[in-house]
Amino acid sequence: MAATVDGDERVIAAAQQILKSLGTTKAETKDMILILSNFDNRLSTITDLIPGPTPLESAEQVLLRWDPPSHSVDPGPAPLPWDDSPDDASDYLAAVDDVIRLAGALSFTPSGEIDSVSDRAESLLQLAMARLEDEFRHLLIRNTVPLDAPRLHGSIRRASFASTEDDFDASLDEELHQDLEQETPRFTNRPRAPSASELCAVDLVRPDSIGDLREIADRMIRARYEKELCQAYSSVRRDALDESLSVLGIDRLSIEEVQKIEWSALDDKMKKWIQAVKIVVLVLLAGEKRLCEQIFDGSHPIKEICFTETAKGSLMQVLSFAEAISISRRSSEKLFRILDMYEALADLMPDLRCLFTEESGDFLYGETEVILSALGEAAMGTFTEFENAVHRETSSRSQGGEIHPLTRYVMNYVKLLVDYSNTLNHLLYEENPNPSMGHGDEELSYLKEVTPLGRRILVLITSLESNLEEKSKLYEDAAMQYIFLMNNILYIVQKVKDSELRELLGDLWVRKRRGQVRQYATSYLRASWSRVLSCLKDEGLAGGGSSSNVSKVALKERFKNFNQGFDEIYRNQTTWKIQDSQLREELRVSISDKVIPAYRSFLGRFGGHLESGRHAGKYIKYTADDLENLLSDLFEGSPGPLNHPKRKIST
Fold first, then answer.
1. What whole-number distance in Å separates Cα of residue 96 and Cα of residue 255?
2. Is 577 helix (H, G, I), strand (E, B) or coil?
3. Angle, helices 300-326/286-295, rounded to nearest 10 degrees
4. How far apart are CA 451 and CA 37, in angstroms?
5. How many CB atoms lie within 10 A of CB 625?
6. CA nearest neighbour of 258 among 243, 248, 268
7. Which of 353, 364, 379 is nearest to 309 (CA)?
8. Residue 200 pLDDT grade (very low, low, confident, very high; cuts 50, 70, 90)
9. Least buried of 82, 253, 345, 473, by fewest C-beta within 10 Å?
């Protein structure tokens, strides 16, 4: 038995000596053992001469298990089981670490010594990086969290808007008259962009995938595949941001396309933009910045490059719409939307400065500043166009001397301007830091401070008053001219007095305009009632100052002329309209104070000369009480009753 064992050892020893002397490779050694074992089965147990795998070979085995050669029948499992089998993924990453380390070490070896090993390591590194790049893309795509727009919009106080078709540009004397039938520019509620506190931070990518993404990014950066890593990240995240913009209603439109959109549709897009721009900056871009910091934590340059390249397209898309608005045709209905866009973007400038802190982001921040400036210029240009439109507006007079639609529109428009006082004062100051004393500035000289907006509003209202003065001349009846001016100036005064405009223009301005209304009332009384009241004078009726020696013919003519004059005024002025009830009543009282005492005195002194004669009722149609009752019908805007309880009004 011992002899047999000893013989086996000698055979194996001889075979080992042969293999060592040949100096074969690992593969050749395996082949030789296979050949020798065919002659003697005992030689199949020789394994100690087969060298173990090198670190590169071990790494290669792991890498090729997931990326088999292209000629292999079995495509192998894909992708890596990050969730189901994290140990396999860890083995793969460990193999990548070995290849990176070996490739780096071999790069310092003198050329020609181990070129084949170096080439092999480089090939494996390329293979591993291609796989990791794909895995990085797939992980980003699979774990992207869709934007929950309803949740975000739910945190914003919804602002309601009515559409507007008001147009202060073409054919003002025709189209504007129709538009001004709507007395208020329909922007009573401003769109309010959400505040930072209202916008909660959202996860753009599922948090449990961040660790795997960071592991991949770390290895690609160490292998100097930063370019491929940035391209992979940016391409996936750009697509995700584009989809989010679409959800928010910010479509990819060219400047030419935006300028062709009808106002009602454009108005809707501007409202969406105002709400969406803050979500874009404070949620999407801020979230993207945070995501880059989490994934590329070990490399500040890569973090900034990836963020800038990802954010650039989305931000420029948002700014492109604002740019298109800034160069579009000026029209008054756009002003408040443009101001809202300006304020929304201006509020975000500090946040954008924090996001784009590096040189790579300076361009984007600079572009945003340019667009902000363009929106400000557009707002000022639109404001100026509105002022010019008010000055040149030539629509017809209003019916019955009522408040003109232009007055209603302009004053309600001006009231809304006050809501933007800070912004407009800033823009007006930038436009003209040292304005010279203009027309009407002396009216505000008593104020402690005249703001740029206050000065422009004064000029605008003065222009409106001049326009109204010209429109009053369209009435042939001088009395109606003053009714028209009273109605409109008082409306202006009330709008100023009952709003923040009062702080801009002051109480003295209000008192002056009220005095102006009283002057118009005095002028109205003179123009309307002087002829009628002249019929109630004594001159030409009694000789020697005695009422007993009166000419009945002259007396009949006086009563006849009074009746005709009063009837004409009644027929006309019951159809005139004074909207303000207080002014209407005050004017009736003023008329009564002049007409009733004079008529009662005249009737008392001379009525007896006719009452005893035939057809007395033909000349003495009214009592003083009749007249007072009839005067209460004036300025109601509809024909008064033609039948009096006692007498019929002559026609």
1. 48
2. strand
3. 170
4. 106
5. 11
6. 268
7. 364
8. low
9. 473
| 551 Cβ neighbours under 8 A, 6+ residues apart | 541, 542
Q: At what angle do helices 405-418 and 478-497 cross, to 10 degrees?
A: 20
What value does the mean pLDDT take over residues 8-16? Answer: 63
Tell me the C-alpha to C-alpha distance, in Å, between residue 186 and each of 267, 336, 381, 407.
12, 10, 20, 15
Q: What is d(CA 246, CA 239) in angstroms, rounded to the nearest whole number?
A: 11
Question: Which residue, 383, 405, 580, is CA-closest to 498?
Answer: 580
Tokens of 113: 């010594």
Listed residue (458, 423, 422) closest to 439, CA to CA: 458
CB-CB contact of 576 with 637 (8 Å): yes
Phi, psi of 113 (to 5 degrees): -75, -50
pTM comes to: 0.78
Determine which of 72-76, 454-458, 608-612 has the lowest per-residue pLDDT on average: 72-76
Residues paired with residue 577 on neighbouring β-strands, in sequence order: 636
How far, in Å, CA of 42 to CA of 60, rounded? 33
pLDDT tens, residue by residue, 299-358: 888 999 999 999 999 999 999 999 999 999 988 889 999 999 999 999 999 999 999 876
Structure token pair of residue 84: 């189901």
Tens of pLDDT, residues 383-400:
999 999 999 888 888 888
Nearest to 398 by CA among 463, 491, 331: 491
DSSP structural state of residue 638: S
DSSP 8-class letter at 176: I
**Is 60 exceeded by the pLDDT of residue 191?**
no
Euclidean distance between the first and final Cα of the chain, in Å?
157
Q: What are phi and psi of 70, to 5 degrees?
A: -65, -25
Angle between helices 226-247 and 210-222 (to 10 degrees): 140
Q: Is 550 helix (H, G, I), strand (E, B) or coil?
A: strand
Q: What is the pLDDT of residues 78-117, one digit of tens each?
A: 556 565 667 777 888 888 888 888 776 655 555 554 556 6
Rounded Cα gap, residues 314 and 286, in angstroms: 13
Which residue has 């009330």 as its token pair? 494
The token duo for 279 is: 């979500």
pLDDT at position 406:
95
Both structure tokens of 138: 């797939």
Alpha carbon distances (Å) from 235 to 136, 147, 285, 312: 11, 18, 15, 12
- DSSP for 82-139 reads TTT-HHHHHHHHHHHHHHHHHHHHHTTSPTTSSHHHHHHHHHHHHHHHHHHHHHHHHH
> What is the spatial distance between Cα 325 and Cα 310, in angstroms, rounded to a whole number?
25
Asked if residue 422 lies in contact with residue 453, where contact means CB atoms within 8 angstroms, the answer is no
Mean pLDDT, residues 373-390 taken together: 94
Residue with tokens 């505000």: 444
Which residues, 6 or more positions from 369, have their beta carbon under 8 angstroms from its beta carbon?
Answer: 349
pLDDT tens, residue by residue, 508-564 = 899 999 999 999 999 999 999 999 999 988 887 765 455 567 778 888 888 899 999
**Cis bond leading into 79, ω under 30°?**
yes
Residue 259 tokens, joined? 């300028």
The residue assigned the tokens 């209905």 is 333
Q: Report the pLDDT value the prediction gives residue 612, as an integer from 0 to 100.
A: 63
If you average pLDDT over every residue of the chain, what do you get?
80
Q: In one letter, which amino acid is 305? A: I
